[in-house]
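Long-time lurker, first post.

We've been arguing in lab meeting about whether zinc ion would sit comfortably in this protein at all. Half the group thinks yes, half thinks no, and nobody has a model to point at. So I'm putting the question to the forum: if I give you the sequence and the SMILES, can you give me back a predicted structure of the complex? Inputs are below. Any interpretation is welcome too.
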Amino acid sequence: MGWAMPRRNPYICPKCGTKADKPIKTWQLIAPIPDARGRITITVMGSFQCSNCGYRWRGVVSKIKAGAEGVEIESTKGKRALGSEEKEEKRRGTIIEIDLSEEEEG
Ligand SMILES: [Zn+2]
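Top reply:
Settle the argument with this. Predicted structure of the protein with zinc ion, as tokens:
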């Protein structure tokens, strides 16, 4: 079993359906227990406010799975894996940066 979060676009206002440009703020939740493949799941949460109706909500912006095999990012656009040749660096504690503007639909 995984997260109980509904699978919807976190950028869409649940009240009126207006799409938010970007989260007001984001933060990361790091799962304390690795998954079956020894990967740590980092969930990137976002806090949004609707420019139309002012409603505030929170949603999962993306999930990052980081392990010895590399890093996998799961977001509204689907999954993508980062190059596994970087894994040595990741293991040494490289900070993973996420460009949120990349996640927007055109
Ligand atoms: Zn709204």
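For your lab meeting: The chain has one domain: 1-82. Residues 13, 15-16, 18, 50, 52-53, 55 surround zinc ion (CB under 6 Å). Whichever side wins, do check it experimentally.
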